Amino acid sequence: MSFGSAAARRGRRPPPAVPCPCGSGHTFSACCGPVLEGASAPSPEALMRSRFTAFALGDLAHLQSSWHPTTRPQSLALDDASEWRRLDVIRTHQEGTRGTVEFRAHWRDPASGATGELHEVSRFRQFSGRWFYVDGEIE
Ligand SMILES: [Zn+2]
Fold this sequence. Notes:
Blueprint lengths: L2 H7 L22 H5 L7 H14 L2 H6 L17 E13 L2 E11 L6 E13 L2 E9 L1
Bound molecules: zinc ion (ZN).
The site of zinc ion (ZN) has 7 residues, from helix 3.
C-alpha cells in the first residue's frame, strides 16, 4: 500500500473547467466532480452520471462506495481495454427512495477501434439521504 496505489484507485481527474465526461454539458466541477469527491448525489440520475464518469476516469473507489452493500461485488476491476466515451440518459424515474435510470453508455476499444454500447435500466435506492446503485437489467 502506498499513496500511489490509493491515488490510482481514485482514478484520473480532469481540470475542473473542462466539460464533464458524462456529457451533461456542465463543467466537471459543476457536475460529477463533487460526487466523485464524496458529496451526496441529489438524484438517481446524478449518481448514474457520476458512476459513468467514474468508469471513464477509472475511479474504482467511487464505483464501490456508490454500490449498495447488498449487491456490491467483493472486488471490482475495470476493463482497461474499453474507453467509455459518451452517456445518453434516456429516461429517469424517481418515487420516494427508489429510482431507475435508463441509459446508453457508448464505449470504444482503442486497440481495435471497435465501438459498442451498453443499454441498461439501472435501479437505485436511497438510504440515510444517499443514493446507491442496486443493480441493472441489460436491455
Ligand atoms: Zn457529469
